[in-house]
Amino acid sequence: xxxxxxxxxxxxxxxxxSDGNLVLESGSIHAxxxxxxxxxxxxxxxxxxxxxxxxxxxxxxxESVDFTSTAQAKNAGIAVIYQEPTLFPDLSVAExxxxxxxxxxxxxxxxxxxxxxxxxxxxxxxxxRIDPDRVTxxxxxxxxxLIEIAKAISLDARVLIMDEPTAALSGNEVARLFAVARSLRxxxxxxxxxxxxxxxxxxxxxTITVMRDGAYIATTPAHETTIxxxxxxxxxxxxxxxxxxxxxxxxxxxxHVDGLNRAGVFHDISFSVRAGEIVGLAGLVxxxxxxxxxxxxxxxxxxxxxxxxxxxxLPAGRPAEAVRRGLAFxxxxxxxxxxxxxxxxxxxxxxxxxxxxxxxxxxxxxxxNRLTGIWATRLEVKASAMDTVVGTLSGGNQQKVxxxxxxxxxxxxxxxxxxxxxxxxxxxxxxHRLLSxxxxxxxxxxxxxxxLPEVLGMADRVLVMREGRITAEIDRVDATPENVMFxxxxxxxxxx
Length: 496
Prior knowledge:
The protein is of the alpha/beta class. It contains 18 helices and 22 strands.
C-alpha cells in the first residue's frame, strides 16, 4: 500500500531523518517504534504531506508521489490520528467529521439530515455509540479519537496512522480502540501504530519497524521478536533494567494525609509518605488519583480532612504556600500544566524560584543561566541552547525540564503524576534512575502511574485506588500485577 525507501530530511544543519525505510501492507497493523528523536515524527510528517523529503522514494500503491500539502495526502487516502485530537469543541460530532465538505441538498444548502445519517452509519460500522448531534466539547479523548477515525473513514482513507493513540486512555477505552483498529485492518486498510507501550505493540501489531537516531534499524514480524530485543535495537545498547531501584533508608513521615474528602471525586483518603520512600499510587484511569494529588498540593479544594507537611498543617487551596514549605508537584499534562511552551529552557527551569533570583526587583540573566546550567547538566537536557523554545523539545526532554523546575525548589516531598507518559524507553530509565537517586538522598516521593510495571518496579509501597477510595496498601515485597489489579477492579482473586 505504501513504501518509503532511503528517505532523508534535514533542517539546516540538523539531520532529522537520514535513512527512512517503511513498508505498509493492506490488511496489516504495523508498529513504528523508537526513542524520542529517532525520526518517527519526521517520517510521519513526510507521509502526511507536511514535510517534503530531501532524498529517497515515496511510493503509494506502487506509484511515486511527492505531496506538497496535507490536503494532497488526504485526497490520496492517507489519514493521521494524533495523540491529542484537534476538533472544533463548539461544533457537533457530525459537523467535525464533515468539516469543509458537508453534503448539500439541491438548493446548495448543507443537508444536516444526510450528514447525521452518514455519521451514524460510520459509527455503527465501527461498533461504537456516539451521538452525531452531540457537541464535541466535553467528550473523552477516546471518543474524540474515534471521531477522527470516523473522519478518516468518511474520506475513504486506505492508510491510517495512529500516533500514540492510547496515552490518555483507560483499559476499556484501549480495548475499544483496538477492536476498531482490527476491524479496519480486516477491511483491507493499512494501519501504522506508534506507541511507547510495548505490551500494546505486541498485542495489536503484526509487524514492527524499529528506528534509531533518524535511521532505519530493522523490520520483523511481532511474533518473531521480544521486548528485550526490540529495546536493544531502539537504544543501541542493553538496558540492564528499566527500573534501577536502589535501597534507601526510610526515615520519618514527611507528608501525612488524613480523611481527605471531596464530594463525588474522592472519599476518606488517608496515607503517609516517609523520607527516602517512593509510594506508588495505582489504579485505573478515573479512579481519582490525579484529583487527590491536586488537592494535596492545593490546586483543587477539598471538603474535609487535613494535609500535614513536616508536622505542620498545610492550608488548603494555597499551592504557593505548599511550594514554600517544601512540596513540589509535577502534573500529568506537562504541556498544558507544567510548561510555558513558547518560552525557553532557562525561563521554564527557573519559573518556580524566580523570587529567590530577584535583586532589587530584577533578575540577572547570568543568575538565571547559572541555575539553569546546574539542572540542565544534572538532568542531561538535550537542547542546543538554554534559550531553545521548550515546545520544540522532545517529550522526554520536556519532562526533564518540568522535573528540573521543581527540583530547583529543593523540595522535601515530590508528587509526580505519570512520570514517563509518552517518553521513550531510554529516557524512562533515566527518569527512574533520577527518582531512585532522589529517594536515596532522603526525598519523599508520591508517584502516580498507570503503568503497572513502573509502579511495581519503583515503589516501596503501593496504594491502590478505585472509584475515589483507597482499596489496598501493599508492601513492595508483596506487590504483584495480580493483587494490584484485583484491588483496582475490586475483583476477588480467582474470579474469571
